């Protein structure tokens, strides 16, 4: 679906738009009539921006490292330089690190926290104040199904996503009176390069186990944001049933099950 320039819906910000779920969310926003500010670390961002322009969108592409405060500020300066109200903010950027906590690099994990946690809070501060002042807006924050269980061998990633999920739920309640909605997206394992980039090729997660479609996960997240839902589990029926079971299963049991899938194989 393409929308004419005269019928554009507004301006949307998408982080982590270079690939995976973020790329699909950017394309969805373009097809639904939004002009875009997109950001990512990868040079592939330019290709995504060009695809979105072919949908009729004006696109501002910002290559930035959101794990650094300067990167977040550069993205927000770009949003402000459009001189337009921001209607949608999709805070999707995130990464994992696989391996034993005894062996992983501390600086790498601090970088993960900077991207998955600090950048979300930092950018959400700008976005939420902006939207509250204009008394309208929609925010989608990508968390993970990993937010619902301990994640051994991704020992920092899971807690970072649990923080983001609770942050989204808390912010949602605060912004209700300002006519701004906040939705959390909790994808299950998805057909992206996520586990490869986390160094998890030699795990059950990385060895081709059945995964959810990134196109479908993005569609579910985008639809939930537009309708103002509090959260959505991204994926197929099996993934959604797993999320329900996680409400009742004890944490030690869930930790053992996750370790079986995330532990590196010799």
Total strands: the figure is 7
> What is the CA–CA distance across the termini?
48 Å
Unreliable runs, pLDDT <50, ≥5 residues?
A: none
CATH class equals: Alpha Beta
- CATH homologous superfamily descriptor: NAD(P)-binding Rossmann-like Domain
Largest sheet: 7 strands, parallel
Principal-axes shape call? globular
The total of helices stands at 9
- Helix content percent band: 40-55%
GO molecular function, one term: oxidoreductase activity
Family: Belongs to the short-chain dehydrogenases/reductases (SDR) family.
Pfam families: adh_short
Protein name: Short-subunit dehydrogenase
Description:
The protein has helices at 20-31, 45-54, 69-81, 106-134, 157-175, 194-197, 214-227, 237-246, 251-262; strands at 10-15, 34-40, 59-63, 88-91, 137-142, 180-187, 231-234. It has a seven-stranded parallel beta sheet with strand order 3-2-1-4-5-6-7, sandwiched between helices. The protein is globular, with a radius of gyration of 18 Å. Helix 1 (20-31) runs parallel beside helix 2 (45-54), helix 3 runs parallel beside helix 4 and helix 4 (106-134) runs parallel beside helix 5 (157-175). The protein is built from nine helices and seven strands, in the order E-H-E-H-E-H-E-H-E-H-E-H-H-E-H-H. It has a single domain (5-262), classed as NAD(P)-binding Rossmann-like Domain (Rossmann fold), CATH 3.40.50. The mean pLDDT is 94. 46% of the residues are buried. The protein is of the alpha/beta class and 266 residues long. Strand 5 (137-142), helix 5 (157-175) and strand 6 (180-187) form a beta-alpha-beta unit.
